[in-house]
Predict the structure of Xanthine phosphoribosyltransferase.
Amino acid sequence: MKALEEKILQEGEVVDGDILKVDGFVNHQVDALLMEEIGKDMAEHFKGQGITKVFTIESSGIAPALFTAKELGVPLVILKKQQTADSLKTEVWQTEVVSYTKDTSYRLTLAKNYISDEDHVLIVDDFLANGEAATGAIRLIRKAHATVAGLGVLIEKAFQPGREKLESQGIHVYAQASIKAFENGKVVF
Ligand code: 5GP
C-alpha cells in the first residue's frame, strides 16, 4: 500500500537493528486518516469471504482493526494480554505467547462470550515478525472451534519467519507493506 510505505519511509525509525518504530502514526500517536485508508484496503482484500468478526491483539492493532471491522460491518474483538493467571470472573480461552519486542511472555485471553463455533475470523495486527502473536490468536480461535479467514498486517518483516510459519498452517497472509531488510538503518521494501 503506497501511502503506508511512504509514511514508513518518512517517519519510521529503525532501532536495535531489527525493530521499526512507528510511534508517530500507529503505536503511540495514531494517524486516523491513514488508519481509515488501511481499514478500507484490508476490508477490500478480505471482502466476500463470510467474515463474522475481526480480532486484534491489544493495543497497537486496535486502530487499523477497528476501521477494518467498520468497513466489513462486523464486530471487533480485542484479545487481552494478561500478565498473570488472576481469577477472572468470566470464562475465557487462554494461551501463552512470547512477546518479540519485549522479550517477555503473556497470556493471550479471549472471553468465551465473544466467539462461537460459527465464527469466521479475520485477524488484524500492526506487525508480523516471528508470527508468535498471530499463532497465539489462531490457537484461541481453534480452541473455540471457529475458523480463521486470514491474517492482515500493516507491516511484515519478510526477513523473519512469521509468514512461512503461518502459510505452512494454511493461513492466508496479507501484508500492506513488506519490508525486505533494514540496511544501515534504512527500510528496504
Ligand atoms: P511476532 O509475534 O510476529 O513475532 O511479532 C508481532 C508483534 O510484535 C506485533 O504485535 C508487534 O506489536 C510486535 N512487533 C514485532 N516487530 C515489531 C517492530 O519491528 N516494531 C514494532 N513497533 N512492533 C513490532
Notes: The CA atoms of residues 92 and 111 lie 4 Å apart. DSSP finds six helices and eleven strands in the chain. The two ends are 11 Å apart (CA to CA).
